[in-house]
């Protein structure tokens, strides 16, 4: 199998860095993109100091031109792109009655608009090639109305689940699959910074498996969904939540 290329948005830290590393371990050439260009460059450097199989690039996911430029750079560098992982996210933990409408818009712009623009830009590119894989990072919060990470975050993740279905249905005839992953609370820097230690203990106690989720396992699931043989997984949102939501 020839080497495949993936673009990971928000790929420089936290879950994004785990995604970038998992695809690199699986033999992919990785475009690590982030709004923080230096962080993206540092992450790519850590994956491959030679730059042969990983590069960092700046990307503001709200921008269609930004996505097109990232796509073109990877195509110029490696000849093609086979996978897009929409992971870039903004989280602001705030009670729903205290959320300013402008702040609501800002979160939705990155999380939901960013996913839409990425799916659209790469959907067109993959359609021309007759093959592609898109993995969108959703969240348990978008399924159960959880507000610990903010109602705007939860609403954006619910929207991502719906966009995943729409793009999956429309792009499937062209050899493209679109799936989502909805993690519950993860053992990540973001969770530990958002939730005080005493409250986190209570959250863990309420998870049926009594543990926080693994960043690496979520990332490996994304690699699985991006595989060439994953053509029959389409329009699904894969739950990784320790049993907090069963259906």
TrEMBL record:
Highest taxon above the source species: Bacteria
Location of the Ketoreductase domain: 4-188
PROSITE patterns per the UniProt record, alphabetical: ADH_SHORT
Coiled-coil stretches: none
Keywords: Oxidoreductase
Alphabetical list of Pfam families matching this protein: adh_short
Gene3D superfamilies from the UniProt entry: NAD(P)-binding Rossmann-like Domain
Presence of keyword Protein transport: no
Family according to the record: Belongs to the short-chain dehydrogenases/reductases (SDR) family.
Protein name: SDR family NAD(P)-dependent oxidoreductase
Organism: Novosphingobium kalidii
């Amino acid at each position: 199998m020839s080497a495949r290329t993936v673009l990971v948005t928000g790929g420089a830290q936290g879950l994004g860095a785990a995604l970038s590393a998992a695809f690199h371990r699986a033999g992919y050439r990785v475009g690590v993109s982030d709004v923080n260009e230096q962080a993206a460059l540092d992450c790519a450097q850590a994956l491959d100091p030679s730059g042969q199989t990983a590069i960092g690039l700046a990307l503001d996911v709200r921008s269609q031109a930004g996505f097109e430029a990232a796509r073109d750079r990877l195509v110029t560098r490696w000849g093609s792109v086979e996978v897009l992982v929409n992971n870039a996210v903004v989280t602001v933990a705030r009670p729903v009655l205290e959320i300013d409408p402008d702040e609501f818009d800002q979160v939705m712009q990155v999380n939901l608009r960013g996913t839409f623009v990425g799916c659209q830009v790469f959907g067109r590119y993959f359609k021309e090639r007759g093959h592609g894989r898109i993995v969108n990072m959703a969240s348990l919060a978008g399924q159960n109305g959880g507000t610990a990470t903010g109602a705007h975050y939860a609403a954006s993740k619910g929207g991502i689940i719906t966009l995943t279905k729409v793009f999956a249905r429309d792009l499937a005839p062209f050899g493209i699959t679109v799936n989502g992953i909805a993690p519950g609370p993860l053992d990540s820097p973001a969770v530990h910074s958002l939730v005080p230690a005493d409250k986190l203990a209570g959250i863990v106690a309420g998870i049926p498996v009594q543990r926080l989720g693994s960043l690496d396992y979520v990332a490996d699931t994304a690699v699985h969904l991006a595989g060439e043989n994953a053509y029959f997984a389409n329009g699904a949102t894969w739950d990784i939540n320790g049993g907090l939501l069963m259906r």
